[in-house]
Amino acid sequence: MLKTEALRGPGGRVVLMDTITKVDAGDSGAFVVSGSHGGSSSGEFALAAPLALAVFNDAGIGKGEAGIAALAMLQARGMPGCTVAHTSARIGEARDTWEHGVISRVNAAAQALGLREGLALRGALERLAGIGSGVPCSPP
């Protein structure tokens, strides 16, 4: 799967892409769930379009928090970003991230949207897209 729309609601749409390198202007305003690590190279691709949210895999966080470096890059531009735990979803597989991902880190802009560590990604994004109950999702 290269890129697909997972859902569309009154609050926005969720686009899945196995690699953030596939993001383009057509994804502007979307909640983008990628299978990519959250390193700085991924952050550069995410900044190519004004996204409502960029989601990455934390890739085990790594040395000097390299696996989540994109979150600070996005925050510097006011873009919400979060990662899912590498233990909850396979790296490189957006569908697995969507279905099983558990949020591990958020930047301040994502926190302002109501995202926080420990939430099931899918439930949280369904709520943001206006599909869910509007109640914060608890960890799985």
Description:
Helix content is 25%, strand content 24%. The protein has one domain. The chain has helices at residues 40-46, 69-76, 94-100, 108-112, 121-128; strands at residues 3-9, 12-17, 31-37, 53-57, 81-84, 103-106. Mean pLDDT is 92; it is low at 134-140. Helix 1 links the parallel strand 3 and strand 4. It has 140 residues and is an alpha/beta fold.
In terms of topology, how is this protein built?
Blueprint: E1 3-9, E2 12-17, E3 31-37, H1 40-46, E4 53-57, H2 69-76, E5 81-84, H3 94-100, E6 103-106, H4 108-112, H5 121-128
Parallel strand pairs: 2-3, 3-4, 4-5
Antiparallel strand pairs: 1-2, 5-6
Helix pairs in contact: 1-2
Q: Low-confidence parts, pLDDT < 50 over ≥5 residues? A: 134-140
Strand order of the largest sheet: 1-2-3-4-5-6
Structural class: alpha/beta
Q: Over the alpha carbons, how many angstroms does the gyration radius reach?
A: 13 Å
Mean pLDDT: 92
What is the count of helical runs? 5
Give me the count of strands.
6
Number of domains: 1
Write the H/E string, N to C. Answer: EEEHEHEHEHH
Label the overall shape.
globular
Strand content: 15-25%
The main pleated sheet reads as: 6 strands, mixed
**Fraction of residues in helix:** 25-40%
The N- to C-terminal Cα distance equals 25 Å
